[in-house]
Amino acid sequence: MGAYQSLWAIRGYPIVHFGEKLPSYEAATSPSLLPALEGLVNLDVYKIALSGYSGSCKVLNSSGEIVCSIKSISTPCCASDINREVLRVRDPQKRGVLSVYKCEVGCHYNSPSFQPGALIGYVNMTNKNIFSYPQFEILFENGESTLLVKSASGYTYNVLSQAGNHKIGEFGPTRNSSCIEGSIQRDLDVRMKVGVILAAAWVLCIIPSDGSSTSMGGGGGDGGC
Fold first, then answer.
1. Residue 141, SS3?
2. Domains and their CATH numbers in the chain
3. Which of 71, 131, 143 shows the shortest CA–CA distance to 105?
């Protein structure tokens, strides 16, 4: 199989009480209004573990506290694979939500206007072929490339600056492949952290612990998340 590419748009839902106006974009992407981001602000060491059922995982900090959960959204087999919601990210109290939509590659990084919420950024996954390890590009909402996530050895990944010459984090599986453990710069923009966490969760789902993989966000050509 040849090369393939998958583009995800990440959108956040600020808390708005009845009768209030939607906040500006700058305010809407603030962790104080998007609780699903709040636990990631000071995150530097983390673990991602699959939950008790297929298609979900939880993200924990260095103290073992859950900072958010990631849930796969199932879609009827007859539905279009483009512009559909594939993942939801929630804080432990389920106060806030980030939704991840699969977009059409080459759309100039403009997600469809019918998708609700504030656009936070994108994750662009590419793979040379089915036998290679995928790499990820983390982008801001305007399409600006910010980080590269590349395989260093198998399912162990380095998080690199956009130019690829500065390492700012890493992640990889535990000995029994049941979890992903990673680290990242604490002061990194929270929008970049979201992209890295989603990439790490995707990698966790495709690690063959028993000869198979857990699908998050739809399978097929994407091989998982």
1. coil
2. 4-218 (2.40.160.200)
3. 143
